[in-house]
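job 3f2a | input accepted
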Amino acid sequence: MAASDTEAAPSQPEEYGVEVLCASWNPVVAAVVEPVGRACRELLADLSVVDADAFLKQFYRCQKS
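job 3f2a | predicted structure (65 res):
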């Protein structure tokens, strides 16, 4: 009996469904990222009204002392 007689022919792989393509989605990631994203947006909104020149003058004044 030859080795080729006992080996099964390779089968075609099954098609992946839509649910398998989204298998890496994790709801915990969305729950963790949302508060961080909200805090970043608030920080950027606060920074848009900051007077950068006044901050730098105060910063350099503190460095000299």
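job 3f2a | The longest helix spans residues 27-47.
job 3f2a | closed
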